[in-house]
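Tutorial, part two.
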Amino acid sequence: SAGFIEPLESTGLYLCDLAAVMLAEHFPYTDDMMEMMAFRFNRIIYNRYLEILDFINMHYCLSRRT
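Running the prediction step on this input gives:
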């Protein structure tokens, strides 16, 4: 449920899939890589959330619906 930003399921499905793929790609092989990989994973996911939030805000602000 962490990926659901708005009423549509598309962003939730996308973010869940992205997180699963990125977790597999960024899973550390050794303990000394854990902090670096966790930081990179979190930064990428955080930026995706911000991009999607910007898109959703723009969509609703530019819409003529009341």
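Residues 53 and 59 are 10 Å apart (CA to CA). In part three we will examine how such features are distributed along the chain.
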